[in-house]
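As a warm-up, study this chain.
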Amino acid sequence: MPHLSRRLRAALLATASLTLVAAAALPDPEPLGIGDRLFPELGNPGYDVLAYDIAFTYHGSNTKPLDAVTK
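Now compare it with the structure written out below.
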């Protein structure tokens, strides 16, 4: 019977050690978006942009949606 408890303890120790090693090796999860407060899951966190321009064309009529193109 003492051999079984030694084997059981060794197996538990090995399992606990492997679990700790696997948990320590996991990378941080990537965020789903860029952190916008209105649309938190939109955007690509893989891009780091220093500057950008947005141009709007407004036709002067509120009956149509705004026609916009980003460049």
